[in-house]
Prior knowledge:
2 copies of one chain form a homodimer. Chain A has 255 residues and is α+β, with helices and mostly antiparallel strands. Chain A has 2 domains: 14-77, Winged helix-like DNA-binding domain superfamily/Winged helix DNA-binding domain (Arc Repressor Mutant, subunit A, Orthogonal Bundle), CATH 1.10.10.10; 86-243, Chorismate lyase-like (Chorismate lyase). Chain A has 6 helices and 10 strands, in the order H-H-H-E-E-E-H-E-E-E-H-E-H-E-E-E. In chain A, the strands form 2 sheets. A 7-stranded antiparallel sheet of chain A has the order 6-3-4-5-9-8-7. A two-stranded antiparallel ribbon of chain A has the order 1-2. Chain A is globular, with a radius of gyration of 21 Å. Chains A and B meet through strand 7, strand 8 and strand 10 of A and helix 1, strand 7, strand 8 and strand 10 of B. Chain B binds a DNA duplex (19 and 19 nucleotides) through helix 3.
Amino acid sequence: MSSTSPxxxxxxxxxxxxxxxxxxxxxxxxxxxxxxLPTEHELCEQFGVxxxxxxxxxxxxxxxxxxxxxxxxxxxxxxxxxxxxxxxTMSGISDLSQYAFDTSLEVISHRVxxxxxxxxxxxxxSEGETWLCIEGLRYAQGQSLPMAHxxxxxxxxFRSLSLPGTTLSEPLYTYIEQQYGARVARVDQDIRAVSxxxxxxxxxxxxxxxxxxxxxxxxxxxRGELLEQAINIHPSNRFTYHESFTRDYLVGDKR
Amino acid sequence: MSSTSPxxxxxxxxxxxxxxxxxxxxxxxxxxxxxxLPTEHELCEQFGVxxxxxxxxxxxxxxxxxxxxxxxxxxxxxxxxxxxxxxxTMSGISDLSQYAFDTSLEVISHRVxxxxxxxxxxxxxSEGETWLCIEGLRYAQGQSLPMAHxxxxxxxxFRSLSLPGTTLSEPLYTYIEQQYGARVARVDQDIRAVSxxxxxxxxxxxxxxxxxxxxxxxxxxxRGELLEQAINIHPSNRFTYHESFTRDYLVGDKR
DNA sequence: GAGTGGTCTAGACCACGAA
DNA sequence: TCGTGGTCTAGACCACTCG
Lengths: 255, 255
């Protein structure tokens, strides 16, 4: 990893590359949970970068909940995986989400079709518009039972989207971004509890009317236009949505 | 706010002071929603600080959702108040309405008592420790039906907490912070679907075994020690948890 | 082409924790 | 006392947007 980096013009920033490297090393238990990462100074030397770059990289890991820092002590490994078990986002769409997340979507059906009145309302669209509708089951890595029944609606202008197969291991919006150059700028998310209907309960193999977590995401571009809406329905005991917030003091009046 | 600030041993970092200043100015509509903040360079001059300090300050506003940034363009004001996303203002509440986080907690009972084995497990504590246990109903402003059945466990060291009455309009942790000088540094949140048990369904006035949203929050201090745990159980049709994420950088490989 | 924010360097001083 | 992470400076180059 030469300090006289040859990687001019490489599109990914160095601090993301470094975060990526550290991420892999933590996952591989090179730095076990509870241990300290090398100091910032050491990482600067090891990777031939400035402290700024090292700090930006570590910040990413901190945001993922994998590392905590303590002045005078060091950076301590807290977990070998990002804290959210299944969900691809928290506190910003900020990621490391370039790393495969541990779920995949098995597509059951996909077709371009006019939407009915009720669906249109949920999409803020007009009845009769033809959207790409995808239905599928979402699996956590290595699990045989699906953790969600998923329905996705893709906006008319992207409805010719081509999928790489019947198993998707990346979020769907990444395909839209790749194929159309669109960009997701914001995600709005609603979560509520529902009673499972026939379609979902059958697809998931749980009793009719058992409780489920209903999770809807709207993916919007810079202009606030809807690119895609995904609805995930999770049976109660196969999924927990986890989030972590850290406090920022903004209005503070210490002196 | 003197630009030639002498800033001696002032304990708060300059970027927080600056963020605070900008925050107040945005609130006062000196920079209206939709307008651009001064450029980083201009802010450097105006406040006599380096670009690093200005950028750290703006990052805080971005994290609060009040400002978005676009390379080549500038920093645009999006809102005059922090948008959800952080502790306590965190969830959007009651169907569809994005704002209105005004809820109050009606205390049904509170007592200091030893916790049982199962509760202890959920708290990461030991059976028999005496915690302050509070049970109540949470109401959205102006609603007569409760939106949640709430149970709160306060750590032993704060169990002498005094409450201002039977109706709490501020989050409970604020009382802990005020009376003990503790500080909440992180909140971990879990959400899942459950089937309502007898206690909750009766308290909420909904059928036994109807679906509910189970929302648990752990309030932790800087050392990761649990100050308080709150469990809110929401009937399916009285509550939607809403969140909005904005993308902070792209992983994209535009070229 | 001028100006923006994004990335990055090479320094510096500080408060605080550990030995 | 020494080393840590937290803060901060004064530069720099880049890709991008916009006129």
